[in-house]
Design brief:
- There is one protein chain.
- With 520 residues, the chain is α/β, with parallel strands linked by helices.
- It has two domains: 13-139, Chitobiase, domain 2 (2-Layer Sandwich), CATH 3.30.379.10; 145-495, Glycosidases (TIM Barrel).
- Helices cover 32% and strands 18% of the residues.
- The protein is built from 16 helices and 19 strands.
- An eight-stranded parallel β-barrel has the order 8-9-14-15-16-17-18-19, surrounded by five helices.
- The radius of gyration is 24 Å and the shape is globular.
């Protein structure tokens, strides 16, 4: 007898029959339609380790035990997203996933994995009956942007660890992974035109011990570094692409640029020596606004866009203090030359230069909420993090928005009380229930603006998250809750039901090697 069905996120429509489909050494996978064959091979790779079955894959017929069928080509909408709907049907003789395109098939495959016993996610052969319940599932996501962010700068994670992180997101039917690649504390992506960005900018002399607010500050006096070569990035992109996960790279500017200024001092506003930052918080050091610096950053973006195929390029724009610009004679002259009223408009001018460059390349700029200050370029999208206010302002001005409020979807916050029993975190408390109850479209938002809300995203900033095990502990199970928030409408959500499904879902997380927070 098959156990109760426990899927996260819950599908839009799930009808359960009485029979079962048994997988065995004779089971096969068949594929038809554009992109289905590659996903058939991916499905086989998912199923072989735990079952030990060969799962041969063939194309051009529908006779496999597991059949994948893409009925059309993927056509992107105006924001660069494709249809992700799929249907999944299990009878006594066959499982069939049908979708308009390969992306829909990719989502259905992840549901298939969750229909099997949790041990299917193990990397070694398990003694389990491999049985699928007879079901009919019709499914599609509510939001187009279902994202999770990972800061690889404050602490660095290997290619394998990042790929595993992406695979876990795929299991929960996310479609966006936002990689924060540059910071005051380390530049993590190779830029061939400017090698000192990684030769110098990827290594800090030491790392803060304890919390940023502790005094006196203490450091470990151990150099810390790491970066991704462009070949590494290509490997991560290829891994994500097979799972139909879009990577959004972030090159944060004009603030959070101490590592770059240390590597290339001419990018700074004053002739002062900096070092790659060893503690957290906000630095006063920002990029200058000379044409040479603007062109430098365009060169960086060119190499990033050559690597990353996704529609959106994130340029940060957050926490850029204006003190240096207010004190710099050259910055003040530049403001006058450009006819700008204040330093906010100067940052807006800088961001507009990046927007024009990104747009010319056929891509689209997205940045944190501060890019609204001083005026925003026409095609830019906003990621609203300090609250939902900047997101509502952006939508009112006709810009697309990704909601990412720190109060609800920052997973570097504590997740349960008492905090003393939890790993050191930056501050705040964001419980599983708070995440689950989050609604990305504010109630007060006018109906004619709501279409601008592309979706929402969770954030994992890693000042106090040192290892991938720490990432998983802080991320899960809150990432599970966010997955359901972004998949279902508010009336479809049920926290009590979610927590019941989460009990068996935790078995899956264990098989994946995820040490999730055990509370609540």
């Amino acid at each position: 007898m098959t156990p109760p069905i426990s899927l996260i996120p819950q599908p839009q429509s799930l009808r359960v029959g009485k029979g079962e489909l048994h997988l065995n050494t004779e089971s096969t996978i068949s594929c038809s339609g554009q992109g289905a064959l590659d996903l058939g091979h991916l499905l086989a790779e998912y199923l072989r380790p735990a079952t030990g079955f060969p799962f041969p894959v063939s194309e051009g017929n529908n006779h496999g035990t597991l059949h994948l069928e893409a009925t059309a080509l993927a056509e992107a909408d105006e924001a660069g997203f494709v249809d992700e709907q799929y249907t999944l049907t299990v009878t006594a003789s066959q499982l069939c996933i049908s979708a308009p395109n390969a992306t829909g098939l990719a989502r259905g495959i992840q549901t298939l994995r969750q229909l099997l016993p949790p041990a299917i996610l193990s990397e070694s052969i398990q003694d389990s009956p491999w049985v699928l319940p007879q079901v009919e599932i019709e499914d599609s996501p509510r939001f187009r942007w279902r994202g999770q962010h990972l800061d690889v700068c404050r602490h660095f994670f290997t290619v394998e660890e990042v790929c595993n992180f992406i695979d876990q997101l795929a299991l929960h039917r996310f479609n966006i992974c936002h990689l924060h690649l540059t910071e005051d504390q380390g530049w993590r992506i190779e830029i061939k035109k400017y090698p000192r960005l990684t030769e110098v900018g990827s290594i800090r002399e030491s790392t803060l011990i304890g919390h940023e607010e502790d005094r006196p500050r203490k450091y470990d006096n151990t150099p810390y570094g790491g970066f991704y070569t462009q070949e590494d990035i290509k490997q991560i992109i290829a891994f994500a692409r097979r799972r139909h996960i879009t990577l959004v790279p972030e090159i944060d500017m004009p603030g959070h640029m101490v590592a770059a200024i240390t590597a290339y001092p001419e990018l700074g506003n004053f002739e002062t020596k900096t070092r790659v930052r060893c503690h957290w918080g906000i630095s006063q050091n920002v990029l200058n606004v000379e044409d040479s610096t603007v062109n430098f950053m365009k060169d960086v973006l060119d190499e990033v866009m050559d690597l990353f195929p996704g529609h959106f390029i994130h340029i940060g724009g957050d926490e850029a203090p204006k003190f240096e610009w207010s004190e710099s004679e050259r910055a003040q002259v530049r403001m006058a030359e450009l006819g700008l009223k204040n330093e906010d408009e100067l940052q807006s001018w800088f961001i507009r230069q990046m927007d024009a460059h990104i747009t010319k390349a056929g891509r689209r700029l997205i940045g944190w909420g501060e890019i609204l200050e001083g005026g925003l370029a026409e095609g830019a999208a906003v990621m609203s993090w300090r609250s939902e206010t900047s997101g509502m302002e952006a939508a009112e001005q006709g810009h697309d928005v990704v909601m990412a409020p720190s109060q609800r979807v920052y997973f570097d916050h504590y997740q349960s009380e008492p905090k003393a029993d939890e790993p050191l975190a930056i501050h705040g408390l964001t419980t599983l229930e708070q995440v689950y109850s989050y609604e990305p479209i504010p109630e007060e938002m006018p109906q004619n603006q709501r279409h601008h809300i592309l979706g929402a995203q969770g954030q994992l900033w890693t000042e106090y998250i040192k290892t991938i095990d720490d990432v998983n502990y802080m991320g899960y199970p809150r990432i599970c809750a966010l997955a359901e928030v972004l998949w279902l409408t508010p009336t479809q959500k049920d926290y009590s039901d979610f927590t019941q499904r989460l009990k068996s879902h935790r078995e899956r997380l264990t098989h994946l090697g995820i040490n999730a927070c055990p509370k609540p």
